[in-house]
Amino acid sequence: MRCRGIAVFLAGFLAVWIAAAAAAAPLDSTVTVIGNRHVGAEMVRSFFHADADGKVDAQAADEAIKRLYATSLFSNIKVSRDGDRILVVVVENPTIGRLAIEGNRKIKDQDLKKDLQSKPGGPLSRAAIQADVVRMLDAYKRYGYFDAQIVPKTIEPKPGSYNTTVDLVFEIKEGEKLAVRRVVFTGNKAFSETKLRSVVKTGVTNAVSFLLNNDIYDADKIENDRDLLRQFYRDHGYADVRVSSAAGYDAAAKSVVVTFAIDEGQQYHIGKVGLDSALKTVDADRLRSVLRTQAGDVYNADAVDKTLEDLTMALARNGEPFANVVPRVERKPGRQTIDLVYGIEGGKRLYVERIEIHGNIKTHDEVIRREFEFGEGDAYNRVLVDRGERHLKALGYFKSVKITTDRGSAPDRVVLNVTVEEQKTGSFFVSGGYSASDGALAQFTIGDSNFLGTGDIAKSTVTYGQYARGFDVSFTDPWFLNQRLSAGIDLFGRETFASPYQAFNTELYGGKIAVGTPITDTLGVSTNYALYKQGLSLDPSIGTVSLPVRQAAQMGSYWVSSIGNSVTYSTLDNSRNPTEGVRAQVNNDFAGLGGAAKFARTTQDVRYYHELGGDVVGMVRAQGGYVAPWGGQQLPLLDGFFGGPQLIRGFAANGFGPRDVTPGTTMDNLGGNAYWTTSAELQAPVPFIPPDAGLKVAAFSDVGSLWATSASTATSLASLSPAQQIANSRAIRSSLGAGLIWDSMFGPIRVDYAYPLTKQPYDVTQRFQFTAGGF
Asked: In 3-state terms, what secondary structure has residue 47?
């Protein structure tokens, strides 16, 4: 009996072994591969899968053929059967030797090749080539060349050559760029065409199009412009606005006319504002201070959205991270008002399982993740997701940001998909010009606002001028220690030489470190420490220099060690081209923690912008400052305030303020330690110039004064040297003028003509002024 059992076991084992061998063997014994030269037969056989009986049926053979074609290794595959035997005849794709692009002038080779499937050394696949042609045509469309033609050609090796590769050449005929000739708005009554043109991103062909490169026809950009127009109207009270767009081709002009049709509806003001909580744990009255919308205000969709975010954040801090805030809007067209009720409801308990990031090539994942105020495992809230999306768009690193959700591994889990399209963040400028104080100058600037994809800001500037030379190297980490805390270092140096506006040379070099943080969306603070060495020297070719200047030169260079802080409040709608809002900044510095100089200084600058109607923006500005020495010292001459066009236009650099008017001397400005100025300005686009050119005209008036108190160096020196005649008047200086402003790709550039209305006999005036940079 026992022997019979062993025999049965061995027979069964042998049967299983034979069946397994039969299942595996047919692929080697019954699938024959012919025609392969570089691809191994085993690789081809691996695509054929046998069934339980060890046979490859017709369906399995068809699937194998499809997968083999998908490898792009073969141009032809034929399968035939002879009983159980399968014959696979393949024709391999040749190998690409050289890949070249010819005829392209508008797009560089490397920009076209980076996304191609065809690569040198890879297989020559017809499907891949056609896909590459489509990719390159899409690239040309993004640059406005919709008539581009691309013909792929192959060059076979010469007969008898040992070279078995094939060269692939893409021949390109770029054609003419399809540009937008006109942008038309219909139905707009509340806002002028000029104003609406400043809202949309699509530009029109004009004299500066080759610089701006914004006149390219792009259907996606036009769709985005529709959203921008809709948002603009809703932010100005037109809650029912509807915007549609159409593009027509002008065959004669070979260009496009884009039309935006606008149904404005009526403008609403806010009637009642309420808070309603369905959660027993939430006291709605305590949250009223968070509201950004008040009764009587013009309805503003952006303010409503930000109120939702603020309420959601406040609820999360108070232990309700899943609460939903839903705005209930009741229109009352007869009164032209909207009643708002912010309803607080219990939301579905969802958690963020993963945040998956796609499309970022340069930017590190953590740079994107840190813009969300939640992490993986935290509560999911759509309002906070939208807030993170807005923060990402505001960085300026991406052309587009899109966030979608997928189901997670459990019903209460979601996966966030963040898809971005990057854009260039580096800059390199070489510019030249003329400055009233520096003379002819050249400036070289290189920088990156997303340095090495880390989100850090790096910038280096070198200036070489007729009367001034200098450098500035700065680096800022906006998320120091992975907190919303900016930390930066700045190394600088500057030399000035005697010019028509000063009779001495100066030098300054040193460094500064600063740490800052936003307290709210509108309020930020920073603290800094600066250590620099400065001094002045005399030019032997200059005549008799004023005595206070000679005494300052005898002191030589000295170190200044100071700590300071800055507080900035801003509600501007656009930091670069504001039309509404307030910006106020207060700077305080205290020198004397080491170094030779001891003084305390404070300056203030407040600006208010408001649209006055049409396209005219009004701006009023107030500035003030005071500096005084301490510890029994006198204020060093270079640490005083020198009046010039930065305070009152129409006056030269160092043009007003305390001055040595002793006959026979160079009559230098000695600087004061107190000043105030006010300005009023109107700005409007230049008529008949497209708004996207960034040109505006301005009319302005400046009023102010600068003088020396008893703490001033000039007054102290005058008391020590009676022979010196020091003019120190608190008289008001004023001017009236007009200017031309260009928001260029190199930064803001401005030319002003100002006529001084009131001045002192010893003041130095200069009617034309040129400035580049912030103003």
From this structure: coil
Residue with tokens 């053929």: 65
pLDDT in tens, 412-447: 999 999 999 888 888 877 766 666 666 777 888 899
The end-to-end CA distance of the chain, in Å, is: 107
The separation between CA 266 and the C-alpha centre of its own chain, rounded to angstroms, equals 34
The tokens for 244 are: 């549609």
Quick check: 591 and 599 in contact, CB under 8 A? Answer: yes
pLDDT reported for residue 56:
76
Structure tokens given for 620: 């009023």
Query: Measured between alpha carbons, how far is 589 from 628 in angstroms, rounded to an integer?
Result: 11
- Cα dihedral sign, 41-47-48-54: positive
User: Residue 140 phi/psi, 5° resolution?
Assistant: -65, -35
The number of beta carbons lying within 10 Å of the beta carbon of residue 499 is: 20
Q: Are 270 and 340 in contact (CB under 8 A)?
A: yes
* 427 token code pair: 């800059």
Non-local CB neighbours of 120 within 8 Å, separated by 6+ positions: 96, 97, 98, 99
- The percentage of residues in the chain with a pLDDT greater than 90, rounded to a whole number, is 46
Question: Which segments within 278-376 are labelled E, that is strand?
Answer: 323-332, 337-346, 351-358
Q: Are 422 and 363 in contact (CB under 8 A)?
A: yes
Report the interhelical angle of 219-235 vs 301-317 (nearest 10°).
80
Backbone angles phi, psi at 555, to 5 degrees: -65, -25
Query: How many CA atoms are closer than 13 Å to the CA of 226, on its beta-carbon side?
Result: 16
Distance, in Å, from the CA atom of 126 to the CA atom of 97, rounded to the nearest integer, reads 15
Tens digit of each residue's pLDDT (9 = 90 or more) over 74-116 = 777 888 887 777 888 887 777 888 889 998 988 888 888 887 8
- pLDDT tens by residue, 147-166: 789 999 888 777 665 566 88
Phi and psi torsions of 186, nearest 5°: -125, 145
Residue identified by tokens 């767009």 is 245
The amino acid at 165:
T
- DSSP for 522-568? SEEEEEEEEEEEEEEEE-TTS-S--HHHHHHHHH--EEEEEEEEEEE
Using alpha carbons, list the distances in angstroms from residue 272 to 195, 328, 336: 31, 11, 12
- Model's pTM, two decimal places? 0.72
Place of tokens 């002028």: 192
The whole-number mean pLDDT for each consecutive block of 10 residues of the chain, a chain of 775 residues, reads 42 40 48 76 80 75 81 78 79 82 88 85 81 88 80 79 76 85 91 86 70 72 91 94 87 83 95 90 86 92 90 87 90 92 90 94 94 92 90 89 92 94 82 65 88 95 91 96 93 91 91 94 94 92 86 91 97 86 97 93 97 89 96 90 94 92 89 96 86 86 93 49 80 96 77 95 90 58
The SS3 call for residue 224 is helix
The dihedral built from the CA positions of residue 308, 313, 316 and 321, taken in this order, carries a sign that is: positive
Residue 246 CB contacts under 8 Å (≥ 6 apart), including other chains = 258, 259, 261
Angstrom distance (rounded) from CA 30 to CA 26: 5
Enclosing H/E stretch for 305: helix 301-317
User: Is the separation of the CB atoms in 714 and 685 below 8 Å?
Assistant: no
